[in-house]
Amino acid sequence: MDILEDNRAYETAVEKKCISSCRVPLHNQNLLSIPNDHLYHIALSSGDNDLRQMFGDVKFVCFGGTPSRMEKFARFMSRELGLGTAPAHNFAGNTDRYALYKAGPVLSVSHGIGIPSLSIVFQEIVKLVYYAGCEDVTFFRIGTSGGIGLEPGTVVISESVVNGQLEPIYKQIILGKQVERPAVVDQDLAQNLHNLALEDDRYKTVKGTTLCADDFYEGQGRIDGAFCEHDEEEKMLWLREMHEAGVTNLEMESLGFIAMCHRANIKGAVLCVTLLDRFEGDGITTNLQLLHEWQTYPQMLAARFIKSTLGL
Ligand SMILES: O=P(O)(O)O[C@@H]1C[C@H](O)[C@@H](CO)O1
Ligand SMILES: O=c1cc[nH]c(=O)[nH]1
Hints:
Blueprint: H1 3-15, E1 38-39, E2 44-45, H2 51-55, E3 60-64, H3 67-80, E4 100-103, E5 106-110, H4 115-131, E6 138-147, E7 155-162, E8 169-174, E9 177-182, H5 187-195, E10 205-212, H6 232-244, E11 247-251, H7 254-264, E12 267-277, H8 288-309
Parallel strand pairs: 3-5, 3-6, 6-12, 7-10, 10-11
Antiparallel strand pairs: 1-2, 4-5, 6-11, 7-12, 8-9
Helix pairs in contact: 3-8, 4-7
The structure holds the ligand O=P(O)(O)O[C@@H]1C[C@H](O)[C@@H](CO)O1 and uracil.
Residues 144-146, 216, 220, 250-252, 275 line the site of uracil.
């Protein structure tokens, strides 16, 4: 039986209530008529690769901006899960677009910068876990952000995600029309992650509202980009307004990530460390060694969640 037939048989069994559903569902019936679906940006395909055998055991998918961070995370997870210290294999190595590593039941995926870049790899990963017949899958974005009124190096678990107009809505233009996708955060998952933060962690962990911008510079109110038509006073006024509205951090993917998790019916959470306090400035001037250490904090919290879920 091929992947699509087997998945159809599974869905029929779910519909007839013979089994309860925990596999990643199919959201696009058009895929049923594509015998060999090329996941072009990750250089894998449903007909040429045995996705079940390669990825059927995946339970957690962790996304983050850069290939090297996600390779290091895969190696860290491999050690944490007692799977050894061998170099991680990049399954998407035949393309330069994204990187994809696996450590036991954990996939580690780079997504680049911004929702358009995230959206492409996110969709191909959703198809991958569907074709692989994965069950009980949870997605995380483990990234970086700019904080507002927080000590740099603080981990923020997003309890809500909003666009630049403070709406929890991801807006897309499809066939020339604006489509709105609600960005609904899984509050249980966010709280379960927060419960794993320990008093003696070397970083603070808070829950907060993450503002997802379309840009790093003007879109996040910075005045140090190549272009700027507002001044320091207007920037500070805006930052104070955002702070009063409960915004704790600014980054560039959370809104699309959470909206797509919600749409895919996949549990998802966003955990980002803050690299600076925007009340103190715009530039990221902390030394690279410390920045690299801070980037590991959301990874450590995600690893703690993964291990506790696996009963380790
Ligand atoms: O996960 P990362 O640290 O790559 O995400 C943030 C948001 C933007 O993609 C990028 C801007 O520097 O960093
Ligand atoms: O200030 C910051 C830091 C990291 N990523 C962002 O998008 N903004």
